[in-house]
Amino acid sequence: MPHRGTLAQQTTELLQQLIRNRCVNDGTPDSGHEIRTVRTLQQFFAGSGLEGIVVEPHPGRASLIVRIEGSDRSAPTLALVGHTDVVPVEEAGWEHDPFAAEIIDGELWGRGAIDMLNLTASYAVVTRALAEGVPGAARFRPRGDLVFAAVADEENGSRFGVQWLTENRPDLIDADYVLTESGGAHAGPQPSLTVMVGEKGIATRRLLVRGTPGHGSAPWGARNAGVIAAEAVTRIARFRGTTVISPEWRAYVDALAYDTETSAALTDPDRFYDALGSTGALAGFAHASTHTTISPNIVRAGEKGNVIPGEASIDLDIRILPDVSADDVEGYLREALGDLMDDITIEGDLYGASTVSPLDTPVVEALRSAVRRAYPTAELLPMLGVGGTDGRFFRRRGVPAYGFGVLSERWDYGRFRRLFHGHNERIDLDSIDLTVSALDRVVREVLGE
Ligand SMILES: [Zn+2]
Q1: Would you list the DSSP string of 48-112?
Q2: Residue limits of the Peptidase M20 dimerisation domain (predicted)?
Q3: Which of 55, 126, 234, 432 has the fewest CB within 10 Å, making it most exposed?
């Protein structure tokens, strides 16, 4: 077996191919084309004895799942779950071609470089290294199974990816623990690296607003549904709801090492808003970490230029904290809208609870020791993600899932969030090296020998 260079070099080269595959998921079923990356990965694994299984619930929306069987059926199993799709780009906002995967001044540029093709490539490299062994070294034999899953459609709710797998082929991705995106950013002067232990839930709703139609030439005193909707949107935007200080948020504020007064205010529900401004680029994240958020994202009213609309609708993107029920969501909306509720009906019942993984698992221990290998005095900083990842599908089945990586010190959480889905997405080669080395250690430690 030829030696193919270090894990970091292999990851860099594979990541470049994954970026160039341009698996852009624009939300339509015929986008994504993740089959391209499945083929790239099949070539990557060729000759290693790893074949895997391909599923394709819709033409082009393919996922590849590889399992290395362990020697002990009672030993814990681990799945590395990486999505292969990326979100669209606005090319005009980029300084370099988002799909050329050029390395410029030690950084690899391209859509997906940090979300999360870097991890998907690392998972593949670690998996192949485990199967092939290192030339000259004794071959590592895992006790528990290792699963590598390169999955489609994470960027649009995972209908053709992990959701499909959990509903139709749970046997393929079955594992005791899961690693996925998104962790590894730094917080504060004392080194603390983020590990995503859970994420908020979701409850989308539509508000139907009733007015009275009339002629646009005489608007005085009209009950224009568009005007009522505008007032409703404004009230929702101003609504503060309940500030909840979770243990994860408290730990995060501690790690950031603000001055005592700011830290105290940021962890006090009554004074939270006084200090929110001092969090700078983290303000949106700080707010979303401590609130069930309601964002009015689609507002529709009117069809004809001279007719006062009798109906309007507002689509709400609602992200819920742990322990918030569907009834609580309705309560927040009634409180925010007040007397406007006379003209408004709440529609929709979608409810996906927030999910959180335990911290007292052997995997978290392995993550901690891998982080300390890179940063000897570092602490793990458990975080609740404010968006959604494939981790939720596993946590809902009782399988702990952690968002893990090890990034270089240039990555604070503000930069991390800005480049996620942003212009000029890129990753430095040091971070690729740190992450793949850490994953290699974690896999070997968790699966034992
Ligand atoms: Zn992602």
Answers
A1: TT---EEE-SSTT--EEEEEE--S-TTS--EEEEEE--B----GGG-SS-TTT--EETTEEESTT
A2: 197-340
A3: 234
Report the pLDDT value the prediction gives residue 289, as an integer from 0 to 100: 95
**What's the 332 CA to ligand 1 centre distance in angstroms?**
29
Tell me, what's the pLDDT at 18? 98
- In angstroms, what is the span from residue 347 Cα to ligand 1's centroid? 29
For residue 20, give the DSSP letter.
H
> What spacing in Å lies between the alpha carbon of 24 and ligand 1's midpoint?
12
Helix or strand (DSSP H, E) at 383? strand 379-385
Instruction: Give, as one character, the DSSP assignment of residue 137.
Output: S
Ligand 1 centre from 218 Cα, in Å? 51
Residue 114 CA to ligand 1 centre (angstroms): 8
**Span from the CA of 423 to the centroid of ligand 1 (angstroms):** 15
With residue 289 as reference, give the H or E element that holds it: helix 283-290
Closest CA to 319 of 297, 347, 301: 297
**Ligand 1: centre distance to CA 84 (Å):** 9
Ordered by where they begin, the domains of the chain are: 7-198+354-447 (3.40.630.10), 200-347 (3.30.70.360)
pLDDT tens per residue, range 280-325: 888 999 999 999 999 999 999 999 999 999 999 999 999 999 999 9
Among 49-63, 127-141, 178-192, which stretch is predicted with the lowest mean pLDDT? 127-141
The structure tokens 């969501």 sit at 329
